[in-house]
């Protein structure tokens, strides 16, 4: 389906194919929607560093985060195929841990690049305001 989108920034019109109504006509909207919540991004980065983590380990990494908020975030990330729950054996006991999927690992360079852009932009803004 062809859609024309009016840019509010530069007043131009862009015609493209709409993927779905939630994220708009641009695939980047879908990606940004996945990582727009800073807590989601923090969980993704934590799991990238830790390789896998239990719920309590993730919860203790975030000061003041409510367990119900974390449950919601983990469910959303799981529904979006960014993380998966795995059952790991630990000395005869089994523990549920969370791990990034292939899709989740592919987000890491994107998140890092956004972070680099943000740092550069912050420095640029600071230089301009001097």
Summed up:
By secondary structure, the protein is α+β, with helices and mostly antiparallel strands. It folds into two domains: 1-26, no CATH class; 37-128, Winged helix-like DNA-binding domain superfamily/Winged helix DNA-binding domain (Arc Repressor Mutant, subunit A). Helix content is 53%, strand content 22%.
Assign the CATH topology of the largest domain.
Arc Repressor Mutant, subunit A
Question: In CATH terms, what is the architecture of the largest domain?
Answer: Orthogonal Bundle
Task: Name the beta content range.
Answer: 15-25%
- Main beta sheet, described? 3 strands, antiparallel
The CATH homologous superfamily of the largest domain = Winged helix-like DNA-binding domain superfamily/Winged helix DNA-binding domain
**Overall CATH class of the largest domain:** Mainly Alpha
Number of helices: 5
Write down the Rg.
19 Å
What is the helix/strand order? EEHHEHHEEH
Q: What is the number of strand segments?
A: 5
Helix content: 40-55%
Mean pLDDT: 84
Q: Specify the overall morphology.
A: elongated
For the terminal residues, how far apart are their CA atoms? 48 Å
Overall structural domain count: 2
In order across it, which strands form the biggest sheet? 3-5-4
Low-confidence stretches: 1-5, 7-19
Q: Which class of secondary structure composition applies to the elements? A: alpha+beta
């Amino acid at each position: 389906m062809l859609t024309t989108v009016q840019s509010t920034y530069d007043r131009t019109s862009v015609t493209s194919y709409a993927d779905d109504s939630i994220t708009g006509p641009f695939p980047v909207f879908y990606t940004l929607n996945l990582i727009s919540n800073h807590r989601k991004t923090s969980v993704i980065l934590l799991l990238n560093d830790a390789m896998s983590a239990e719920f309590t380990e993730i919860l203790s990494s975030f000061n003041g985060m409510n367990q119900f908020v974390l449950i919601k975030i983990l469910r959303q990330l799981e529904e979006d195929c960014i993380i998966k729950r795995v059952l790991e054996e630990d000395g005869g006991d089994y523990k549920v841990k969370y791990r990034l999927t292939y899709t989740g690992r592919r987000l890491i360079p994107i998140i890092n690049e956004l972070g680099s852009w943000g740092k550069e932009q912050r420095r640029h803004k600071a230089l301009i305001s001097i």
